[in-house]
Amino acid sequence: MLPENLQIDPAAITATHNTHNELTVELVPGKILDVLRALKAQKYERLVSVTAVDRYPMEPRFEAVYHLQSVALNQRIRLKCRLGGENPSIASATAVYASANWYERETFDLFGIHFEGHPNLTRIMMPEFWEGYPLRRDYPVHGHKYDYKNS
């Protein structure tokens, strides 16, 4: 259940729970930008992180996870959107929070989640030639073999 002072479109919410004294709201992926805009207007001015969780072999396989903070209210909130394993994608939060830029690039680079509308969705941690996404649970433990001498 949402606190009274928090206004989020009920049609966007699929579940809520409170863990470790932090509210988690699970959302319909298509509503993420609307919810982020609403929360920013409600003094959640800081996007702390964007990351993902790979639930392989479960489906939907991925969760895109956003952590927001309100310095003014001294509160935090966690948003989660479940994404399917086949071509996972969600709208980029960069239009609402500029700080999402590198977080989304890192999540793309390591999990392969595409952030639609991102201004520069390129690898940020792994080299451009890298094959696959190393934080996926089905990624080979030894990594893909690459011939550095003949590259």
Q: Can you describe what's shown?
A:
This protein starts with 12 loop residues before the first strand and ends in a 35-residue tail after the last strand. Helices cover 15% and strands 30% of the residues. The longest helix is centred in the last third of the chain and has 12 residues. The chain is α/β, with parallel strands linked by helices and 151 residues long.
Distinctive features:
alpha/beta, Beta Polymerase, domain 2, 5-stranded mixed beta sheet
Report a brief summary of the structure.
This protein has helices at 32-41, 100-111, and strands spanning 13-19, 22-27, 46-54, 62-70, 75-83, 89-91, 114-116. The chain is α/β, with parallel strands linked by helices and 151 residues long.
Strand proportion, as a percent range, falls in 25-35%
Helix/sheet category: alpha/beta
CATH class: Alpha Beta
Choose one word for the global shape.
Answer: elongated
Outline the secondary-structure elements.
Layout lengths: L12 E7 L2 E6 L4 H10 L4 E9 L7 E9 L4 E9 L5 E3 L8 H12 L2 E3 L35
Parallel strand pairs: 2-5, 6-7
Antiparallel strand pairs: 1-2, 3-4, 4-5
